[in-house]
């Protein structure tokens, strides 16, 4: 028999997935009732576990479940707003030029694109990254090229 705490936790996880389907992200505002409070609690429990201060209610299994859907443990409101704004700038760039390969020397959008590629490599190597699966999916949907390296020509 499943413990009551697991039933509630799994129910909230299902609510979070439904939120993601509607909103395209997992960053539920704190003011969004019980789901917002639950998300905040997961982040708080994660921080407690990192510090090793006391036993956390967030098991490794639960962490893995949240990681598998692209959950962000640390959210900076400025960076979220900034990422979405930059993504919109990249979409506009693609509409104008037909590609997403913004050169670094072309200013802040170019530096942002370079940063996305770098953080994608971090993600691939299981290192800490600002990029999550939801953002990767959004970039993939517009045809973002993760590597500019071209294969060597063979004779």
From TrEMBL:
InterPro entries: Helicase_assoc (IPR005114). Residues 7-71, 83-144 form the Helicase-associated domain. It comes from the Eukaryota. PANTHER family: HELICASE-ASSOCIATED, HELICASE-ASSOCIATED DOMAIN-CONTAINING PROTEIN. This is Helicase-associated domain-containing protein. It comes from Attheya septentrionalis.
